[in-house]
Amino acid sequence: MRNEEVVIGGLPVEIIRKSNLKNLYIRVKPPEGNVTVSTPMDVKKEDIELFVLKKLPEITKIRDRMLAQERQSKREYVSGESHYLWGKPYRLQVVYEGTKRNIIKTPTKIIMTVPEGTDSDSREVLMTEWYRQELRRVLDSVILRCEKKTGVHAEEYRIKNMKTRWGTCNIDKRRIWINLQLAKKPMECLDYVVIHELVHLLEKNHTHRFHALVEEFCPTWREAKKMLNTMPLDYLEKGEADTDDEETDIERYL
Predict the structure, then answer these.
(1) Which residue from 97, 125, 143, 189 has the least number of CB within 10 angstroms?
(2) What DSSP assignment string belongs to 3-71?
(3) For the whole model, what pTM was predicted?
(4) How many alpha carbons fall within 13 Å on the CB side of residue 171?
């Protein structure tokens, strides 16, 4: 792998050459909107520049939206913070007592009980695992519904706490990864992402046929995508992004 920094159309672009690639892929990374191009080793620099220039309006649109979208401040997992579950905000209440760690939800609050002296990192781990349980609780029924709609079956679904993607699909292994953060979004967003990834098993790339199939199986996808694009995102530190060896397709949901 070999990296190179260039400026194309006034934008700094990092070119990443990889021996195992057959196509060129553009990524716009949050939170700063940094642009990278992953390319096979033998593609000429001028061809890469032409590819980026053709995609420049789309890249600019994504960067502008990414930079404008609200992000939550860094969470400390203390009483008074707002945390989302299935699109609804809840006020966090932390109770320090006993020796057990657990979380319960009321109509307006998420109540976290932990031993006295539990640090913020441990509280974050507890909250993350609680979100994982909430997502797992509904995921099987969502998968069943979406696979019935599409007539497509994935061999495996996994949950991962991703920073920059709502879902990914390994087409060869028929494995779909679902972002843990979807537990914080309205349920229809989870349906949309599952259907989107399942459609990749019918049509690998984002062709006209791909989008037509998503439209057929999920007529409300535009509303779901709008929610993903407008609701506050989690805090993301500068330079923090996902790397996923499973990824076979790059999708800009954000």
Answers:
(1) 97
(2) EEEEEETTEEEEEEEETT-SS-EEEEETTTTEEEEEEETT--HHHHHHHHHHTHHHHHHHHHHHHHS-B
(3) 0.72
(4) 11
